[in-house]
Design brief:
Blueprint: H1 7-15, E1 27-28, E2 32-33, H2 35-47, H3 74-82, E3 84-86, E4 96-100, E5 107-113, E6 118-121, E7 129-132, H4 136-140, E8 141-146
Antiparallel strand pairs: 1-2, 3-8, 4-5, 4-8, 5-6, 6-7
Length: 152
């Protein structure tokens, strides 16, 4: 049985990562993380285990088509295996947000929604931060997922 967690617990857990330096493919609070590593780390912090380890990936992984020339929603597909996909209009605190950085591209950036139009994320060259979403991020939102057992 999956432990029941609240959106407040998820946001509080994600906030503990604020200030963690950006480091590609890392997932260690206070040491280094990328956007996926933040989601993985919060999952570990909440559930004690990580459901799957991602394979090594390059910074431009989303721009590289599969062998058949297709662009694959790798991040969204992995999220579907372990989180519950919800409608974008239902996004609330504690939910995982996946963004398309360029219209028509695959989703390649992840964040955790906090409160009042804010999100917590890791960006290349910057430490994990809680930022205002403004108008750019909502326009690029592609998928929303809820952690297992979340009350919302």
């Amino acid at each position: 049985m999956t432990r029941k967690i609240t959106p407040n617990e998820i946001v509080a857990c994600a906030r503990l990562w604020i200030g963690t330096p950006y480091h590609h493919q890392a997932s260690r609070s206070g040491v280094g993380t990328d956007c996926l590593g933040l989601i993985r780390g919060v999952y570990r912090d909440l559930y004690a285990d990580e459901p799957e380890m991602p394979p090594p990936y390059s910074p431009d992984w989303a721009e590289v088509p599969d062998p058949d020339g297709h662009r694959v929603e790798t991040m969204a597909d992995a999220a579907r295996r372990h989180l519950r996909e919800i409608d974008k209009a239902e996004a609330g605190p504690g939910d995982v947000l996946l963004f398309r950085m360029v219209p028509g591209a695959v989703a390649k950036h992840a964040a955790i929604k906090s409160f009042e139009g804010r999100m917590i994320h890791a960006c290349s060259g910057r430490a994990v931060a809680e930022v205002h979403m403004g108008s750019w991020w909502p326009r690029h939102l592609a998928f929303v997922f809820r952690f297992p057992g979340e009350f919302n």
